[in-house]
């Protein structure tokens, strides 16, 4: 979804310049290594501006994450011109691709590291809860549309969306935390689930 992150190419104001610098430092150093100084190294203006707007790295990271999610929500409409069966194939492709919110594996690594902070930090927990709700809502809408279109079986949209959401988190975590490649087998089994438990194969 690189098109949704135009601020990375052409930041429009100081805020977007700060967010771009945060993104670059976050990808390079991860959560454990990012500091205000390292963000400042990527920022074309005075370091004092960072402290003027933000109390510290976590305050800045939370602002950055909210900005990214807001852009994604705005540019990922629930309605689609394709059938729900085609749309769900795109979702599965995205689930097992090496990309994530942006086409940068370093960003995916840093996000998995940051998600682990949510185990002890309520602000990060609330952020990731919001992203999970957004993803589930989007998939649930696809499922409901597919049932209405007659291309999906009469499954529970909420339960099915929950399964997809857990798979999203699990595949991303596996990709960046293990050298063991199990995705070919995992994808084959998940696609079998989609074909047998979701897709309506009744002949017309």
From TrEMBL:
- One Pfam match, given by its short name, reads TetR_N
Q: Which GO terms describe its molecular function?
A: DNA binding
| Residues in HTH tetR-type domain copies | 12-72
Record keywords: Cytoplasm included? no
InterPro entries given in the database record: BetI_C (IPR039538), Homeodomain-like_sf (IPR009057), HTH-type_TetR-like_transc_reg (IPR050109), HTH_TetR (IPR001647), Tet_transcr_reg_TetR-rel_C_sf (IPR036271)
What is the species listed in this Swiss-Prot or TrEMBL entry? Halovenus rubra
Kindly provide the name given to this protein in its UniProt entry: TetR/AcrR family transcriptional regulator
**Sorted alphabetically, which keywords does the UniProt record give?**
DNA-binding, Repressor, Transcription, Transcription regulation
Its domain of life reads Archaea
Q: Which PANTHER family match?
A: HTH-TYPE TRANSCRIPTIONAL REPRESSOR SCO4008 (PTHR30328:SF54), TRANSCRIPTIONAL REPRESSOR (PTHR30328)
**Residues in the DNA-binding region annotation:** 35-54
């Amino acid at each position: 979804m690189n098109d949704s992150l135009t601020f990375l190419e052409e930041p429009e104001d100081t805020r977007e310049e700060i967010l771009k610098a945060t993104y670059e430092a976050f990808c390079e150093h991860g959560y454990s290594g990012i500091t205000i100084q390292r963000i400042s190294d990527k920022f074309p203006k005075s370091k004092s501006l960072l402290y003027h707007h933000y109390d510290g790295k976590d305050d800045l990271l939370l602002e950055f994450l909210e900005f990214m999610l807001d852009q994604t929500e705005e540019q990922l409409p629930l309605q689609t011109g394709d059938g729900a069966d085609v749309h769900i194939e795109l979702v599965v492709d995205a689930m097992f691709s090496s990309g994530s919110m942006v086409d940068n594996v370093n960003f995916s690594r840093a996000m998995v590291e940051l998600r682990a902070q949510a185990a002890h930090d309520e602000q990060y927990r609330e952020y990731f809860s919001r992203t999970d709700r957004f993803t589930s809502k989007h998939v649930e809408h696809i499922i409901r549309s597919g049932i209405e279109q007659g291309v999906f079986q009469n499954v529970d949209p909420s339960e099915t969306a929950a399964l997809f959401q857990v798979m999203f988190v699990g595949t991303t975590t596996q990709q960046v935390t293990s050298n063991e490649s199990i995705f070919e087998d995992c994808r084959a089994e998940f696609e079998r689930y989609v074909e047998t438990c979701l897709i309506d194969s009744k002949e017309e």
